[in-house]
Write a structure and sequence with these properties.
This protein is an alpha/beta fold. Strands 3-2-1-6-7-8-9 form a seven-stranded parallel beta sheet, sandwiched between helices. The protein is globular, with a radius of gyration of 21 Å. Helix 1 (about 20-35) links the parallel strand 1 (about 5-10) and strand 2 (about 35-45). It has two domains: about 5-190 and about 350-360, Rossmann fold (3-Layer(aba) Sandwich); about 200-335, 3-Layer(aba) Sandwich (Rossmann fold). The protein has helices at about 20-35, 45-55, 80-90, 95-105, 120-125, 140-150, 155-165, 200-205, 225, 265-270, 280-290, 305-315, 325-330, 330-335, 350-360, and strands spanning about 5-10, 35-45, 60, 70-75, 75, 110-115, 130-135, 170, 185, 215-220, 240-245, 255, 275, 295, 320. Helix content is about 40%, strand content about 20%.
Length: about 375
């Protein structure tokens, strides 16, 4: 008699890519440990990201499951607009809840994992299945200073704490903020994806390199709108470095555009000598996993930044560049002052995906 597949439902925040990358790593580990498992994924993150990184045994439902952060750009949050968007989203909770619970029951979902939409735990409690969170921060902690400034939204923070309190357990990641809203925390290592293709093979695919093994490569991990704020023309004064960017670069000779789905992100990180970006959890953890230093600048009005920046510097993972130098393309000196992570350095463990998968399976 054929065994019926067990199923799990992931709710994944569409804010940035960090929530998505670590959820994908956990899903891969789950499917490796339990091949007779099907994973449903609800998220506002782009579908191509899952097609690029997952092969089978999953169903993607593309829909927004949280607000995340409304941003003026990747470096500045729109605090009032964020709170207003959450208030609107929360008003839809009660009307949305029955259909979410119906989805869980029709698909015989055995457990719900949230990274970290509060909707996930409202649904898990209502459906009577275990609800587990994976997080290094929570939205109540992020929104708290916003609500202190825009006091008409003070109610948002206790509501979020209440929703997160409906989770059954928390898998708490390193470099975390205040996660006291969740019950039953368990600390796990960083979750990160390691490259599966050799550095040499990736460099061969970059056909603009004349000497694919000795050339210096810098991966600019920013969106198109953010790249437009940077004086990329100035990078021509650093001719010994090839810069990779996920956007058109207006013909600048040593800044090479790549389509976003060219290769999975860890392959590019591993093949590069440095990643240049603002710090986010996904970037930091995958730089650790692939032993690539990070050149980073600051961001405003986002509490996670201070925790990550302190961790990067304390662990010797990268170099800070003030925004004035970052946006002006004044990168040459900083690129000469990066830590060497590839030789002889003991870095934090990145097997949190395996640990998370083991805990999740224990609960279904």
């Amino acid at each position: 008699m054929m065994q019926m597949k067990r199923s799990i439902l992931f709710y994944i925040s569409g804010h940035g890519f960090g929530h998505t990358t670590r959820s994908i790593e956990v899903i891969k580990r789950l499917l490796h440990l339990e091949p007779n498992l099907h994973v449903f994924i609800k998220t506002g993150a782009p579908a191509w990201f899952f097609r690029l990184n997952l092969r089978e045994n999953y169903t993607l439902v593309s829909e927004p499951v949280d607000v995340g952060l409304v941003q003026k750009n990747s470096f500045v949050a729109d605090k009032e607009a964020t709170l207003k968007a959450f208030a609107k989203f929360y008003l839809e909770f009660k009307t949305r809840l029955p259909s979410e619970v119906k989805f869980v029951r029709e698909n015989k979902v055995r457990a719900i994992v949230g990274d970290i939409p509060p909707l996930a735990f409202e649904v898990s409690r209502a459906a009577g299945v275990p609800g587990m969170a994976i997080a290094n921060f929570s939205w109540d902690w992020i929104y708290e200073p916003y609500a202190e400034e825009f006091t008409e939204y003070k109610w948002v923070v206790p509501v979020l704490k209440m929703l997160y309190g409906k989770a059954d357990a928390l898998l708490r990641l390193p470099l975390h903020g205040d996660l006291s809203a969740f019950p039953n925390p368990t600390d796990i290592p960083f979750i990160a994806r390691r490259a599966e293709i050799s550095r040499e093979e990736v460099r061969k695919k970059l056909n603009f390199l004349h000497d694919s093994q000795s050339a210096k490569i810098a991966l600019i991990s920013l969106r198109k709108a953010d790249l437009q704020q940077i004086d990329l023309k100035r990078l021509e004064s650093i001719p010994d470095v090839h810069f990779l960017a996920f956007s058109d670069t207006n013909g600048i000779k040593n800044v090479h555009p790549l389509p976003p789905d060219f290769l999975p992100y860890p392959e590019l990180v591993h093949a590069s000598d440095v990643v240049i970006s603002k710090p986010g959890y996904g970037i930091v953890s995958e730089c650790i996993a692939n032993k690539t230093p990070l050149l980073f600048t600051g961001r405003e009005d986002f509490r996670e930044y201070a925790v990550l920046a302190e961790g990067i510097l304390n662990l010797g993972l990268g170099t800070f560049l003030p925004q004035e130098d970052f946006f002006s393309g004044n990168w040459a000196a900083a690129l000469e002052n990066l830590p060497d992570l590839k030789t002889g350095r003991e870095l934090p463990p990145v097997n949190g995906g395996q640990k998370a998968a083991e805990v999740i399976l224990e609960n279904i």
